[in-house]
Amino acid sequence: MKPLKLVMSAFGSYGGEEIIDFSKIKGGLFLVSGDTGSGKTTIFDGIMYALYNKMGGGDRETKMMRSEYAKDKQKTFVEFTFEYTHGENKGVYVVKRTTNFRKSGVTSDVVLTLPDGEVFNGKNKETDEKIQSIVGLDYKQFGKIVMIAQGQFRELIMENTKNRKEIFKSIFSMDIYEKIERVINDRFKKIYAQIKDNNLLLEENFNTAYVSEENGNTDAWREAFEKRDTEPGLLLDVLEQEIKELEIKKNEEKKIIDKKNADIVKLVKRISDADKINSKFGQRKEAVLRYESLMEQKETYDNKAVILKKAKAAGEVRQVQSVYIKTKNTIELKEKQLEQNKSKFVLLEQSHKKLLSEKESFEKSYLTDNEKLLKEKNRLENEMEKYKVYDEKNKLYILEEKKLKELKEKSDLLNDEKKAALIKSEENKQILLQLKDIELELQKYISADENEKRNLKEFEALKKAISSYKKENSRLDSAEKEYADKYLAWKEARKTYENTSDRYVAAQAAILAAGLKDGMPCPVCGSTNHTQPAAMTKDTVTKEELDGAKSKENECEKEKNNSQKIFEDNKRKKDVAFAEVKRYYENCYNLGDKADAYLKDSESYNAGDNDDTSLKDNESYNVSKIEIDSDNIDIKDNGYTGFDENNTDKLEENVKAKIKEIKKSLTENEQTIEDLYSKKEEKLKREKAEKETEAKLKEMEENIADNAEMLNKQSVSVGSLSAEMEMLKKELSYESSDTALKELENIRNKIEVLEKRKRELDENILKSDRTKSNLNGTIKENKNQLETDRKNLETEYDDFIKVLKEKEFENEEAYNESLVHIESIEIFDRQIQEYKEEVSRVSSLISVLDDMLDGEKEIDTDVMLQQKAEMEIEAERLANENEITVSKLGTNNSVRDKVSKLMEQRGKLNEKYKIISSLNSVANSKKIHFQTFVLRQYFNMVISYANKRLAVMTSNGFLLKCRDISLTTAGETGLELDVYSPVTGKVRDAHSLSGGETFMASLAMALGMSDIVQNNSGKTQIDTMFIDEGFGSLSDDVRDKAVKILLDLAGSSRLVGVISHVSELKEQIPSKIIVRKDNDGSHITWVQDR
User: Fold this and answer.
1) What is the mean pLDDT of each run of 10 residues along the chain (1090 residues)?
2) What's the CA gap between 148 and 82, in Å, rounded?
3) CA-CA distances (angstroms) from residue 1039 to 573, 608, 1063, 1068?
4) Helix/strand/coil (H, E, C) string of 606-660?
5) How far apart are CA 535 and CA 771, in angstroms?
6) Are the beta carbons of 924 and 1008 closer than 8 angstroms?
7) How far are the Cα atoms of 6, 96, 586, 1035 from residue 69, in angstroms, in the given order?
8) Contact status, residue 450 vs residue 545, Cβ threshold 8 Å
């Protein structure tokens, strides 16, 4: 990463917008120079803030970035343009970070423009992550590698292995080694877990296998399991032996079982043959017994055959008899019907005579009653028209009466509404009267609020000026003390030099005498005899000591002059700051009289007459006097003449109290103004409501007048209708049309009843005549049919007697006896047939069995069954034993297969475990990890490059070396740093370096790290370095060497910035950024010597 341009606006000590164009730098090395506190380090802060949203110094917070010199509308932002010249991030990038200061806190927005000109699309967090991925370093790493910061020289040298490892990991792309460590550790855990699972499965199968104690295999099996890793084949050998013995046992048991089963089969066949013969003997006995039983029933079945024959004959006779009986029954039924019809005819004669008598009686009264009812009906029908007129007028009367009632109610309602509106209007007028001066009151409070805000602004400006003055005064005290110390040191050095010079002059005689030789003339007196030559004393001073004292005096004088310059500069700044305090103090003094004048005006307003709604007694009405009370300062009474530099603390305390008081007053006034605005709004609403009420009252008056006129007309209409109805009511027979209608309906019903009764009598007489005529015809027909049926009955009886004789029945009695059995014909027929078939079947069976059993005898099978049962029990016992043997054999075969696979797997796992365990112990050692081991090589390379420059700067005074791992005691190690002296050959801890040595070592390490990064294909490209101070601790000789190294480094397309106030560097570095600070903040000027 190489900076191209930095733009800072209202940032840090820079009040306006400052632009640093790094392309102006010639040779790559440039100096950032300026007074202490002028804003030199802020340049690097700007870069850090743009990239990481953090300030460069550990003691600087982002909330401090807003410049106190910035104008109110000046935006705070930093825009940083940088370039990558090669690699995957090649191109120009622009980062702009804007800071927003709100009441809720400080926030920032960041915009990243990519090399293609497109803006990166992401939220602030995502953009920050993108920037970090481009730079390749996080905030802490960037601060340690790109910048050797002020006060942080020791950290680069003093870091422990853990912290150095984190820095190197990001720089040298150690992800692959970290992944290797993780993969090795994961595989180690996986193989270890597999071995553990294998061991559990082996133990499970060991306990599952069946090993007989009888043949001594149990001890061998247990011993083989213990030796499963040293002698893996032994476990399977023992198991194979046990399986072989079980296989033999299984086969022997199978032979015995097969023989036993064959004997049982033979015995079962013998029993089966015997059972068959015995069964046939039993069947013959049963057949003989059955035949004898059938012979005993022969006479019974012969009798049934005779009965069956007579019953069938009786059935034929009965068919003829049934015709005769049917005719006889028909005659009896018709004779009975004839008698019934004759009785009905007599009753009908009687009923007909009665109907005729009733008709005669009804006709006598019908003519008189019907005429009377018809006359009344006609009268009422004519009167119903009058009822109709009356009802219509009555309905109209009810409607008009309802309208009259509604008009009366409306009149009452209108009067009530008018009364309520008048009351509301009166109340509204009273409140409006109370609010009539609210605008004037509001305007006075607004004016008071504006005055208080102006007062607050002046006092806050005074407070800020006092704070600035105290800071400058504190800096002046420090500068004064520094100047006094440097002045005393210079005087001491000058005194030492003068003393040394005196002693040097005094020692010249001794120096000359030391060069005299006998016989040679003295250069002073010319004598060749040197009897008492001047001798050297312990106070004799050499030329080198004199030059050293002069150099020390010059150095102290230079430091004195620098501190004097700083002191005078701080004094000037302190005087400027004090003048600001006085200016703002005078402004606040002038406010006192203005405040008093306004306060009097406010009090005179409050003294006026106000009603209860005024805010005279409101506690929030408070316009403060601009007055500072103290023993020495009273702006109102004494003016600023009593103020001097010794009362700033007291003044600041009183100003803070006054600011607090004004803020409180402002808060109360603002609440009062808010309340007055509410009342003003209320007044406007009420004025509008009053206008609406007046319009509404006018409308109400009109409505009341209209309603009164309508009410009068409606009353007249209702009275007229009532009179007409009374006249009409006198002409009606009944109270209402409903009553008249009911009476009319009643008369009509009576007429209808009379007509209906007349019709019923005529119909009943006619119906009676018809019924008599029909019944008389039926009687005649019955008599004729009976005559015919009696003749047929005689013929049918003769036929019956004839058939009876033909079927050999002596008389009807014999026929009736056979007729009893006619229902059992089918049963007897079937029984006789079944009997004959059974006799034939049994006779045939006996004949067949006799042929089959010729020469055979019955056999006793009980003994054979007993023998069979015993043999089956023995066979079952043998089968159970064999099943157990087979089960054991199956289990052992399964265990053998599983153990074989597990042992094979175990062998492979043990081989893998040996390898991975060895790798894991190396890659994940508690003392040095695989990553650390690789980084150690890079560390040695960085040290090697650093020592090349360190040897030049220190004239081989000391070099750096990576500490031996064997020399460390506890914790993670591998990246510790030691110091080696080529002169003494001794090694010491880097923590023993002095301040100047630490700076040289830090510079050399930073340059060495930059070299390694540039020469390796790591993901981070560093083309930039900033060095903040540190040169002041170096001697002239070492500083010259360091600058020469930086010039050589910058010449190879890198950018190196030195931040320092050491004046000698201005002569040695041609490209300079001069930072100066005035009342408007810091400003930047480019200077190019050549």
Assistant:
1) 91 91 83 86 88 71 74 90 82 92 77 92 89 82 70 64 73 70 83 85 75 72 75 78 83 88 87 83 86 85 80 80 83 85 84 82 78 81 80 84 85 86 84 83 86 86 87 89 90 84 63 65 55 63 81 89 89 86 78 42 38 38 36 38 67 87 87 86 84 84 84 82 78 78 84 83 85 84 82 80 79 77 80 86 87 79 85 88 85 83 83 79 64 82 88 87 73 81 88 80 80 62 76 74 77 77 79 89 84
2) 20
3) 32, 82, 12, 10
4) HCCCCCCCCCCCCCCCCCCCCCCCCCCCCHHHHCHHHCCHHHHHHHHHHHHHHHH
5) 199
6) no
7) 19, 21, 22, 38
8) no
Q: Tokens for 410?
A: 């409306």
Sign of CA dihedral 951, 953, 954, 955: positive
Contacts 24+ apart (CB under 8 A), 832-840: 832/301, 832/304, 832/305, 832/308, 835/294, 835/297, 835/301, 838/290, 838/294, 839/291, 839/294
Pair 158, 1001: CB distance under 8 Å:
no
Which residue matches tokens 């001798």?
535
- Confidence (pLDDT) at 593: 45
Residue for token digits 């010794």?
646
Q: pTM, whole model, 2 decimals? A: 0.37
Kindly list the distances between the CA atom of residue 954 and the CA atoms of 555, 962, 983, 988, 1057, in Å, as whole numbers in the listed order.
Answer: 21, 19, 12, 16, 22
Helix, strand, coil share (%) of the chain residues, nearest 5 = 70, 10, 20
1073 closest CA partner among 1088, 1055, 1051: 1088
Q: Distance (Å, rounded) from C-alpha 98 to C-alpha 69?
A: 17
User: Rounded to the nearest 10 degrees, what angle do helices 175-208 and 930-954 cross at?
Assistant: 150
What DSSP assignment string belongs to 1071-1088? EEEEEEEETTEEEEEEEE
Rounded alpha-carbon distances, angstroms, from residue 54 to 1, 119, 134, 1016, 1056: 19, 22, 17, 29, 22
What token pair was written down for 284?
A: 């013959």
Q: How far is 974 from 962, CA to CA, in rounded Å?
A: 8
Residue 102, phi-psi category: left (phi > 0), alpha (psi -120 to 50), beta (remainder): beta
Contact yes or no for 616/610 (Cβ under 8 A): yes
Cβ proximity of 337 and 782 under 8 Å: yes
Q: Which residue in the block uniquely carries the two structure tokens 């003449």?
A: 641
What lies within 8 Å, CB to CB, of 112 at 6+ separation is 93, 94, 95, 119, 120, 127, 130, 131
Provide the token pair at 124. Answer: 């602030």
Q: Label residue 26 left, alpha or beta by phi (over 0 means left) and psi (-120 to 50 means alpha).
A: beta
Count of CB atoms within 10 A of residue 975's CB? 23
Three-state SS for 75?
A: coil
Q: How far apart are CA 859 and CA 918, in angstroms?
A: 89
> Any residues with CB less than 8 A from the CB of 466 and at least 6 apart, and which?
581, 648, 651, 652, 655
- Could you tell me which of 962, 977, 1083 has the C-alpha nearest to residue 38? 1083
What is the enclosing helix (H) or strand (E) of 8? strand 2-11
What is the rounded distance in angstroms from the CA atom of residue 356 to the CA atom of residue 720?
64
DSSP H or E segment with residue 9: strand 2-11
Helix (H, G, I), strand (E, B) or coil at 941: helix
Q: Which residue has the tokens 């009807």?
A: 812
Q: How far apart are CA 338 and CA 650, in angstroms?
A: 155
Residue 366, exposed/middle/buried by CB under 10 A (0-12, 13-18, 19+)? Answer: middle
816 Cβ neighbours under 8 A, 6+ residues apart:
none
How far apart are alpha carbons 569 and 482 in whole angstroms?
13
